[in-house]
Design brief:
The complex is a heterodimer of chains A (131) and B (159).
Chain A (H helix, E strand, L loop, with lengths): L1 H56 L4 H13 L8 E5 L8 E14 L3 E14 L5
Antiparallel strand pairs in A: 1-2, 2-3
Helix pairs in contact in A: 1-2
Chain B lengths: L1 H4 L2 H46 L3 H7 L8 H14 L9 H7 L1 E5 L4 E2 L6 E2 L3 E11 L1 H5 L5 E10 L3
Antiparallel strand pairs in B: 1-4, 2-3, 4-5
Helix pairs in contact in B: 2-4, 4-5
The chains are: A alpha+beta (131), B alpha+beta (159).
C-alpha cells in the first residue's frame, strides 16, 4: 500500500513537470508575440507620422528624425536601436517620399527557443515643398 | 483505484496539447490581423490626407476658399495603392486591384451628405471606402476562412 502511494506521488510530480513544460511555452508564446505585435503597431504609427512630416519639410532632415525618435521613445522603443531610411533624401513638390523603419524584437519562449524578430514599417508621404 | 488514475493528467495534457496549439495559432492570427487591419486603415487615412493637402491654389487665391484639387480622387487612389504596396505580403489581392476597386468620392462643395455613411460634411471632403482582403492562413488551418475582409473608411477635409 505504501509502495503504491509512493509510486502515485512520484507520477503526479512527473505529470506536473510535463504539463508545466508544455503549458508554460504556450503562455509565453501568447505574451511574447502579443508584445511584438503591440510594438509593431506603435512603430507603424510613428513611421506614418514621420512620412507625413517628411513630405511637409521636403525629405530627410534632423527634424523628421527627431520627431520619429520622440514617437518611438514614447512607445517604449529605443530610437538608437532602429534603422531609419528616408528615400529620396530631398523631395520636391508632389513627389513621393518613403520612410522605412526596421527594429529587432527579442522573443524568448522557455524550453523552446529564443530569437529576434525583425519588425519593418514603411509609409509614403507626398512632398509639399515647392522648391 | 489509485492505479486507474495514474497517468491521467499526462494523457489529458497530451490530448489537449494539439487543441491548445490550435488556440495559440488562432490567438496569434487574430493579433496579426489586428496589425494588418491597422496598416490598411492607416494606408487609406494617409492617402486621403495626401489628396486633400494638394488644394486648388488658383481657387484659393481667387476666392480665399479651400477647395480640393481636380485630381484629388486620382491622387488618393494612386497613393492608396502605393501605401498598400508596402504591406503587399499581408494582402490577399494585388494592391492596385484593391485600390482600383475602392470607392473614392469627392465632395467639392459643402455642406454635403454622404449617402453611404449618412455623415454631413461642413467642408469640401474626400472619402475612401474599400474592402481589403487580408491573408489569415492560420484561420484556414482552423477550418475558417483563410482570407479575412476588412472594411476601410477614410475621410479627410482641407483645413
Amino acid at each position: 500500500m505504501r509502495s503504491a502511494a509512493r509510486e502515485t506521488y512520484g507520477l503526479a510530480t512527473l505529470e506536473a513537470t510535463l504539463m508545466i513544460a508544455m503549458l508554460v511555452p504556450l503562455l509565453f508564446a501568447i505574451l511574447e508575440f502579443g508584445s511584438a505585435l503591440e510594438r509593431w503597431l506603435s512603430q507603424d504609427a510613428a513611421t506614418i507620422q514621420a512620412a507625413r512630416y517628411a513630405g511637409e519639410v521636403g525629405g530627410d532632415s534632423p527634424e523628421v528624425r527627431g520627431l520619429l525618435a520622440d514617437q518611438l521613445r514614447g512607445s517604449g522603443i529605443d530610437p538608437s536601436a532602429v534603422t531609419v531610411e528616408i528615400v529620396p533624401p530631398r523631395v520636391g513638390w508632389r513627389e513621393p517620399v518613403r520612410v522605412s523603419v526596421t527594429s529587432q524584437h527579442a522573443i524568448a519562449i522557455p524550453f523552446l527557443f529564443s530569437t529576434t524578430l525583425p519588425l519593418r514599417s514603411s509609409a509614403i508621404g507626398r512632398g509639399e515643398v515647392n522648391r | 483505484m489509485v492505479r486507474d488514475d495514474a497517468g491521467m493528467a499526462a494523457v489529458t495534457t497530451a490530448v489537449l496539447l494539439p487543441l491548445l496549439a490550435l488556440v495559440l495559432a488562432g490567438v496569434l492570427q487574430l493579433g496579426a490581423l489586428r496589425v494588418s487591419a491597422a496598416r490598411v486603415r492607416a494606408a487609406a487615412d494617409l492617402a486621403a490626407l495626401i489628396a486633400v493637402n494638394d488644394q486648388d491654389d488658383a481657387a484659393l487665391a481667387r476666392t480665399g476658399e479651400l477647395r480640393l484639387s481636380s485630381d484629388a480622387a486620382d491622387v488618393a487612389r494612386d497613393f492608396f495603392a502605393r501605401e498598400l504596396e508596402l504591406s503587399a505580403p499581408l494582402l490577399a489581392a494585388p494592391p492596385a486591384e484593391i485600390a482600383g476597386g475602392a470607392e473614392i468620392v469627392v465632395y467639392p462643395a459643402a455642406p454635403a451628405t454622404d449617402p453611404r455613411t449618412g455623415a454631413r460634411y461642413e467642408h469640401p471632403t474626400l472619402r475612401i471606402a474599400a474592402q481589403v482582403p487580408l491573408r489569415s492562413p492560420a484561420f484556414g488551418v482552423l477550418a475558417l476562412a483563410p482570407v479575412t475582409v476588412v472594411d476601410v473608411l477614410a475621410v479627410s477635409s482641407p483645413r
